[in-house]
Design brief:
By secondary structure, this protein is of the alpha+beta class. Helices cover 40% and strands 21% of the residues. It is globular and about 65 Å long. It comes from Microbacterium murale.
Length: 495
């Protein structure tokens, strides 16, 4: 049987799937891991985890089905991350993760001052924020001169796997467009003047599209993974975009809503929409543009409550259901790791308002679910104000297994959500891209055949007025508390 192997390196785990050419998942495997947080605002991971877990997962999946023929490999990973390696491909320091890592504030301010916010937006589409990969590269140059002196190449998780598998040094256009300010979005190319100014000693990776072939599995990679020599490997891209592919939410007018450790939204269109509070990027495919946003915590927040209360998810969900809309007068700002879009505030912090001695853990959990939903609504309204034409919403990720969370987000946002049959996410999308890359002419797979929509979540109109009021309070609570919260964040950095 012919199949493809898809592997995605996420924030809290690496997942892999072996998928038949009709879209059936033959086997799956997961390896849990944790990020490192050596200082407030720093979020890192050592890159050997990515390759070690890929090797382990590939071995497990191949052992489970030794009779299959792997026709191609798909890779995906969280991002935009910054992993710098030396001339021998040895990492010079741990990888700096995406917008949840907020260390590069000084570099963002300096680069914005030097280049000009209007020019940055004209070239790359977005202002510089904690999501900007170029600012993280500049941080290493400024703060770690020994590591910088050795650095010669730049990777993200997907392209690190592609490098280890094939020897190719590539980066996809979508990921490159988040390496702000080094990418020219209209010309779909590296912007040499600014690359040379801030990253001149780093070799530019060759740009391709996510589903393009990066190369073939080498003898050395085959020996450790069990994947046959010569097997094609795609370039891959950032996990949120691969998740959108996995559910068919990458067409014009689609919005992909990813439920995970963080929450991510990707709206797809043809025009380059620019707004300072969101991220303008290249799409996963030629001719598309995205307006994207992300919450810094979602599943991470609910997991924090679970661990803090010593409960399990079924208990908390049952109690949250009983708590009801509004969580008996609780309102949470979910900014427990700062916040990305649309407020772009790395010094934002979590706030729990309205707490009394009568509240229990179920109320707290309900308020956390509503907080993420209010954050999603804030992003969607900002996207639409910028001109995004959002015609359909497709939900994906581990959080879609929780019916209450899905319903709360539909009720708060007023949006219908479509949920596909398979919500395993980016690893499945990577397998689909791999299958598409090697399909013969006229025989390319269709994602709606692989993964049809099986559930539709409709907002409950009874709750509309209440959640409109709660959203207004949510926005006002941030504005009213941010001065004090910023002072506390400064204290945390000092500690």
């Amino acid at each position: 049987m012919h199949c493809t192997l898809g592997v995605d390196v996420g924030t809290s785990s690496t997942k892999g799937v072996l998928v038949a050419h009709n879209g059936e998942i033959l086997a799956s495997a997961t390896r849990a891991h944790e990020v490192d947080r050596p200082h407030t605002g720093w979020v890192e991971m050592v890159a050997h985890i990515w390759w070690d877990e890929f090797v382990s997962i590939a071995g497990e999946l191949i052992s489970a089905h030794p009779d299959v023929e792997i026709t191609a490999v798909g890779v995906s990973g969280m991002g935009p991350c910054v992993l710098l390696a030396d001339a021998d491909d040895q990492p010079v320091r741990p990888a700096i993760l995406y917008g949840v890592d907020t260390r590069a504030g000084a570099q963002i301010a300096r680069m914005t001052d030097e280049l000009g916010i209007d020019e940055i937006t004209r070239v790359g589409g977005s202002t510089l924020t904690s999501q900007a990969g170029g600012a993280k590269i500049a941080w290493i140059s400024d703060e770690e001169p020994d590591a910088w002196a050795e650095a010669r190449r730049f990777f993200m998780p997907a392209t690190w796997l592609a490098r280890k598998l094939t020897g190719a040094y590539v980066l996809d256009h979508q990921s490159a467009s988040q390496t702000s300010p080094f990418y020219d979005i209209e010309n779909e190319a590296w912007y040499d003047p600014w690359w040379q100014q801030y990253a001149g000693t780093i070799e530019q990776p060759r740009l391709t599209w996510a589903g393009d072939l990066a190369g073939e599995v080498t003898d050395a990679a085959s020996a450790v993974t069990g994947i046959p020599t010569g097997t094609p490997v795609i370039t891959g891209t950032i996990d949120a975009w691969t998740e959108a592919v996995s559910v068919g939410a990458h067409e014009i007018g689609d919005l992909m809503l990813m439920y995970g450790t963080t929450m991510f939204l990707v709206a797809t269109g043809e025009q380059t929409l620019r707004t300072p509070s969101m991220w303008t990027t290249a799409g996963a495919f030629p001719g598309t543009r995205n307006l994207a946003g992300g919450l810094s915590t979602s599943g991470a927040l609910t997991a924090w409550i679970k661990d803090l209360t010593g409960s399990d998810y079924p208990e908390l969900l049952a109690e949250a259901e009983l708590s009801g809309p509004g969580a008996k007068g609780l309102l949470i700002l979910p900014y427990f790791a700062g916040e990305r879009t649309p407020i772009q505030d790395p010094d934002a912090r979590g706030v729990i308002a309205g707490l009394t001695l009568e509240h229990g853990r179920g109320d707290l959990y309900r308020a956390a679910l509503e907080a993420t939903a209010l954050g999603v609504r804030h992003n969607v309204e900002t996207m639409r104000a910028a001109g995004a034409d959002i015609r359909r919403i497709v939900a994906v990720g581990g959080g879609t297994q929780g019916q209450l969370w899905l319903q709360v987000i539909s009720d708060v946002t007023g949006l219908v959500q479509e949920v596909p049959e398979t919500t395993i996410g980016a690893s499945y999308g990577a397998a689909f891209l791999a299958a598409s890359a090697v399909a013969s002419e006229g025989a390319a797979p269709v994602i709606t055949d692989w993964n049809p929509i099986t559930q539709t979540i409709t907002p409950n109109p009874v709750h509309r007025d209440f959640y409109d009021t709660l959203f207004d309070r949510y926005v006002r609570l941030y504005e009213g508390s941010k001065d004090v919260v910023h002072e506390l964040a400064a204290d945390q950095r000092g500690a």
